[in-house]
């Protein structure tokens, strides 16, 4: 199945007739066999894009456009969260109850979603030792918890997995390991990943598809290698120049406030 977004917009009212322009004119296609990473600075809209796909937008958000997996489109699609779309949240700790062992929680998730793989098999898929099943979440490292969160997202055997900033609390090596794992999982499913960690994507998933976001819009899409080596958007060039290995050049134009953002706003003012 293919994940398709067409002209997706999200507006979030904040009172007094004002609204946050959280997503604007988003077109995106993610296919099995190639992971799709969404990158951009803080406040660019990456997490909101994930929420629009998974149906986890704020209750007062106004959504328009099309999000579909195969023939199943939102909002009906959102009712199949876990079975059609597996979710890896920003904070792996939020996946689990701290006073219950990991194995019992994964087993309960598998039963609820009707998955075919047991907890031990899920840990095998993500490369986490089965001994973790007997541990409480607080006994696991950040990297182990992130792997466990990915295992939980796979519990219902979904054809789509959406991961929102899965490397945000990890060191460089763990970040690259998680990116490599998600790229591997894309062999037989759609994997959409929002991340600020361009270095990990460049190092571990150069063949992936990549969309760059700025101010609620996608400004560039291509393979990661193409975008990193020959960016076409001014924002992408400046974003890459800000990486440590490229000199830590500050962005000349900051991310704007998305409240009542003018429809014709583009990078550079």
From TrEMBL:
<keyword id="KW-0997">Cell inner membrane</keyword>
<protein>
    <submittedName>
        <fullName>ABC transporter ATP-binding protein</fullName>
    </submittedName>
</protein>
<dbReference type="InterPro" id="IPR050388">
    <property type="entry name" value="ABC_Ni/Peptide_Import"/>
</dbReference>
<keyword id="KW-0813">Transport</keyword>
<feature type="domain" description="ABC transporter">
    <location>
        <begin position="3"/>
        <end position="240"/>
    </location>
</feature>
<keyword id="KW-1278">Translocase</keyword>
<keyword id="KW-0472">Membrane</keyword>
<comment type="similarity">
    <text>Belongs to the ABC transporter superfamily.</text>
</comment>
<dbReference type="InterPro" id="IPR017871">
    <property type="entry name" value="ABC_transporter-like_CS"/>
</dbReference>
<keyword id="KW-0547">Nucleotide-binding</keyword>
<keyword id="KW-1003">Cell membrane</keyword>
<dbReference type="GO" id="GO:0005886">
    <property type="term" value="C:plasma membrane"/>
</dbReference>
<keyword id="KW-0067">ATP-binding</keyword>
<dbReference type="InterPro" id="IPR003593">
    <property type="entry name" value="AAA+_ATPase"/>
</dbReference>
<dbReference type="GO" id="GO:0005524">
    <property type="term" value="F:ATP binding"/>
</dbReference>
<dbReference type="InterPro" id="IPR027417">
    <property type="entry name" value="P-loop_NTPase"/>
</dbReference>
<dbReference type="Pfam" id="PF00005">
    <property type="entry name" value="ABC_tran"/>
</dbReference>
<dbReference type="InterPro" id="IPR003439">
    <property type="entry name" value="ABC_transporter-like_ATP-bd"/>
</dbReference>
<dbReference type="GO" id="GO:0016887">
    <property type="term" value="F:ATP hydrolysis activity"/>
</dbReference>
